[in-house]
UniProtKB/TrEMBL annotation:
This is TetR/AcrR family transcriptional regulator. PANTHER family: HTH-TYPE TRANSCRIPTIONAL REGULATOR BETI (PTHR30055:SF234), HTH-TYPE TRANSCRIPTIONAL REGULATOR RUTR (PTHR30055). Residues 3-63 form the HTH tetR-type domain. The keyword Transcription applies. It comes from the Bacteria.
Amino acid sequence: MRQSNKTAILDAAVSVIEAEGITAVTFDSVAAASGVTRGGIIYHFRSRDELIAAIHLHLAQRWERQLEAACGMRAGDATELERLIAYVRVATTSATRAELLMMLESPNSEHQQAWTDVIERWIPSPVAGATGASSSRTIALLAADGLWVNDAIGSNRMSPEERLRAAERIIGLIRDASGSVG
């Protein structure tokens, strides 16, 4: 199968999750959403578990492409500060239902590694008992995570402009703690 067809199948599976949740992902529901036959899907994803694993990887890779676009480079070429700022900027995009459900489903499962790989490249590990800049970075990351899930939990809906202003305030905290003006 050409990559574009595989991507179409995965995008269709994500749309099924958006509409009906993870449990609704079946070969038949994805076939209906993608226009690819059930047999065509089974040929490339031998089991539902294999399809679910591919969806996790697909969403994690999409997230990493967003981080790279926000940063203007790959994680390995960016400083810690540049990676953190990119993370905050990506957080201005509201979490989708599919992203949230898949991330919530992944901990302590075989699917967690797809997400962990991206997180390890982009987000520094918190330092126990951190103070100063490390503590401020941890607080900024928590604020960015809150910004990302805010609309999904419906606690305080924000306009795109408000989200951008909030992200810039968070970035300001990171820069202030790092002593950076850039």
